Amino acid sequence: QVQLVESGGGLVQAGGSLQLSCAASGRTFGARAMAWFRQAPGKEREFVCANSWSGGSTGYADSVKGRFTISRDNTRNTLYLQMNNLKPDDAAVYYCAAARTAWVKEYGSTKSYDYWGQGTQVTVSS
After folding, report:
1. Over the stretch 9-60, which tens digit does the pLDDT of each residue have?
2. Measuring CA to CA, which residue among 86, 88, 64 is closest to residue 15?
3. Which of 17, 41, 50, 112 is deepest in the core (most CB within 10 A)?
């Protein structure tokens, strides 16, 4: 089992920045692909970004390209999401997720991930 705990959410003005963290514990963290998803009220959970265990492969949703950056520190078992130039449409509960393998072909699908955190709320005021 892998336990994931997100932190760093909060209220920010449009144009501002936040950094989310996801601390992992349990079984091996470094050998897993990791991702961020988000879910706004009344909407389905949507893919934000993902990276491989080495960090060498990444994927981003078009809506966040150029503004969000995913990174990880395998020595600290921590995944990060740096969010810049936030927009009101970015407001959601953000979840981190872990796969069973180092990379997943369908990295944008929730079905590719077996472990999920409880989420952290991001609110963006206009």
Report:
1. 999 999 999 999 999 988 766 689 999 999 999 999 999 999 998 888 999 9
2. 86
3. 50
